[in-house]
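Thread: Newbie trying to understand structure tokens

Hi all, I'm a second-year student working on a class project, and my supervisor (Dr. K.) asked me to get a predicted structure for one chain before our next meeting. I've only ever worked with sequences, so writing a 3D structure as a token string is new to me. If someone could post the tokens and maybe explain what I'm looking at, I'd be very grateful. Here's the chain:
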Amino acid sequence: MSATWTRVGVGVVAAVVAVIVGVVTTGTFDVTDPGTGVPQGANNFMLILAIGLLIGFIAYGAMEWLQTRRLDSIARQFDTRTIVLMPIAIAINIVLGQTVGAALKIPVYLDSIGTILVGVLAGPIPGALTGLLANLIWTFVLAGTPFGQPYAWPYAIVAAEIGLLAGIFGYFGFFRSRPNTSPTTLLVGIVVALAILGGLAWYGILPYYADLGGFQFFVPSGNVDPLFVALGYIVAAVLVLAAVGLLVLLFRRRDLGVAYVLVGGAICGVISALISAPITALLGGVTGSGTDFLVAAFQQAGSSLQEAVLQQGLISDPIDKTITYVVVFTLLGTLSRRFTARFPQGERAVGSVEA
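---
Reply by user tm_fold:
Sure, no problem. This is what the structure looks like when written as tokens:
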């Protein structure tokens, strides 16, 4: 086993042990609502996970120090550009996430674009830290403002996982452009990726929208802040532009990188759903987002709360993360290679290869 995988293994084991000890020590989590809309047990559960993540990170660093007497693998991910990008990414997460939650009625979140951008360009650790800090600020720093979101903190571990995976996928080249692919190879890759996503949408989301009276993009109530309605139109425009950019990459450049992004997004979504399901159950199935109606629909169909939140997550999360990956991939395609290559992982993650 290489030195890198040894310290990764030590970090994972340390984090898992810390979480198990924390859960066993806590016992039953309190599900009463102290008036914030979030049961205290959900916040405590996230605190245990955050402490476990910190212990895992410390164990990783300690093992690297024992191996090399240095912390190069961590330090090189946090250059000046990464530190400047992280607060911008956090702001993007909060603005888009709050807009989708307040003004749109779609079963996605779009609150991890900044996290994925940092993960791809800088590496797994800055990506995870960006997701964790974004949800921490979203709940506690912005409490009492139009952008405050009490449900964000319990999902901070999911946000960290999203950034971690983005960094890993970036390292292995999932976001690299692959132009001039042969038509046959491109067609096979796109058909497989779209078949997975289309099946999730057709059998999961569309029937439940039909049962609830059809698709509604904007919430029809009149108590939505006009700021979020305006931002909602901007978000819709960004999604349309990302879709157009995707089509351009597909048909003009024959870019097989699109298929990699679609598959990477779906994988990230499935893992996110598995992690977030027990948290959503602790929250009683209510998260303040557009996915709540899916949980209710599954419960009305006879599923238990635990089953309903997992079913909802396995539908919403893969679609949300795939859309987000496409947006980030399209955005990276508009940036100059000279700019992206200056980030710690930029050249490896975003460079072009001939497919």
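A couple of things are worth pointing out once you decode it. Residues 211-222 have pLDDT under 50 and may be disordered. DSSP finds 14 helices and no strands in the chain. Feel free to ask follow-ups in this thread.
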